Amino acid sequence: MSLLTKEDEKNLRQEYDNLRQSIWSRGQTAWLLHSIMISGSLLVVLSSFQYSMLRTIVPLLPLDIPIGSLLIVAAIIAIIFSLYIQYTDLKLNDIMFQRMHEIEAKLGMVGPGKMFEAKIQPKLWHKIRRYSWFGLFAFLIVAYTLALLTWLSL
47: exposed, middle or buried (C-beta count within 10 Å: 0-12, 13-18, 19+)? Predict the structure, then answer.
């Protein structure tokens, strides 16, 4: 721990709290966004098949582009957007955690960073938890693509 003035220590603690709050807030926002995007995309894909019956009766657009297939494309785009948000959130969090560890070292804090590095980060369940969203997004993109191909073959 280097020699810090009271003002420096106060500023570092404030920065540490701001970083921690930012990570927490971004995590909550991501959960909310993913919940909305996944639920909405599932509803859109399921409802798109209602249009398959209408397509045989009335052309829906002048170019006969099936509305149902466009809905599935919109669902795929929504999931790709969620995937992008999750990826960038993890990158931002890594940067912020690195800065938090630097602050912990400057302030002589041994608790949070050491606990994370020793007891949480090396565990398999942590890696699965960290990357589980990507597995879900990949599954949905493949499933929606198959649904799109099915729709187009009707």
Answer: exposed
* Structural domain that includes position 142: 6-52+63-153
1 is a domain residue: no
The reply to whether 18 falls in a domain is yes
Q: How many CA atoms lie within 13 A of 130 on its CB side?
A: 14
Q: What are phi and psi of 82, to 5 degrees?
A: -65, -40
Q: What is the DSSP string of 59-112?
A: -SSTT---HHHHHHHHHHHHHHHHHHHHHHHHHHHHHHHHHHHHHHHHHT--SH
pLDDT per residue as tens, the chain (154 positions): 458 899 999 999 999 999 999 999 999 999 999 999 999 999 999 888 777 666 555 555 555 567 778 889 999 999 999 999 999 999 999 999 999 989 988 998 876 767 777 777 788 888 888 899 999 999 999 999 999 998 878 7
Q: At what angle do helices 6-48 and 124-153 cross, to 10 degrees?
A: 30
Number of structural domains found in the chain: 1
Two structure tokens written together for 146: 């198959």
Rounded to whole angstroms, the Cα distance separating 84 from 134 reads: 10
Say if residue 24 is exposed, middle or buried (CB neighbours under 10 Å; 0-12, 13-18, 19+): exposed
